[in-house]
Amino acid sequence: MKKIVIFDMDGTLINSAQDITISINYVRNQLYTLPPLDKSYIIEAINAHDRNLAELFYQTVHYEEGAKVLFEEHYHEQCIQNVYSYNEIVETLECLQSRGCNMSVATNAPSTFAHRMLNYVGIAPFFSSIIGADNVKFPKPHPQMIELLLEHHGYNPMEDSAWMIGDNSKDMMAGSEASINTIFAAWGFTNTGLGERVAFSPLEIVQFIFEE
């Protein structure tokens, strides 16, 4: 029986809040001459289930192509300036790997940034697949990412167990829609959320996965 563990990235594996904030504020200043936003506001907006980030960040109804291009150009360099993996993440991944778990990442960030940041903090080798929003037609909360990763791992729902670990409602919905277990990561960008289980530290997920 396989145990398959799928992680969200931002706010679950790594803390990227400072760099995201710097790049968003860079675009605000360069294109829109808007004052900077607080990091807490930006992270709360990103984690909100229903929102228009173009309006919240740039006061536009839709993302303008220039804003998208400028953000990605800036964030490519910025994304590894302050990022770090959360406390206990490395130990948790080592533990899961040593006990035979198959691990992957499903993030709504572009895959280029995901590979760059996870390699920078040194945890990319733990994952057999890293899927970003550009690799699918429908990002989370749609289950497409999760279903692709389950297929990648040869998941058999009659024999295997699978978990989605994430720090917001979109992660939990994607996992539920794919009919796998969900664990809310309360150590990340927010400490309140709904999942079948709530883990307040990364090592807690090991207990949940192996308590059967």
Topology, please?
Layout: E1 3-7, E2 14-15, H1 17-32, H2 39-47, H3 53-58, H4 65-78, E3 84-85, H5 89-98, E4 102-106, H6 111-120, E5 129-131, H7 144-152, E6 161-166, H8 169-177, E7 181-185, E8 197-199, H9 202-209
Parallel strand pairs: 1-4, 1-6, 4-5, 6-7, 7-8
Antiparallel strand pairs: 2-3
Short summary of the structure?
Helices cover 43% and strands 15% of the residues. With 212 residues, the protein is of the alpha/beta class.
What is the H/E order? Answer: EEHHHHEHEHEHEHEEH
Structural category: alpha/beta
Evaluate the radius of gyration.
17 Å
Instruction: Count all strands and give the number.
Output: 8
Strand order in the largest sheet: 5-4-1-6-7-8
Main sheet characteristics: 6 strands, parallel
Distance between the termini: 12 Å
Strand content: 5-15%
Can you offer a commentary on this structure?
The protein is α/β, with parallel strands linked by helices and 212 residues long. Helices cover 43% and strands 15% of the residues. The chain has a 6-stranded parallel beta sheet, sandwiched between helices. Strands 2-3 form a two-stranded antiparallel ribbon. β4, α6 (111-120) and β5 (129-131) form a beta-alpha-beta unit. The mean pLDDT is 95.
Descriptive keywords:
212 residues, alpha/beta, globular, six-stranded parallel beta sheet
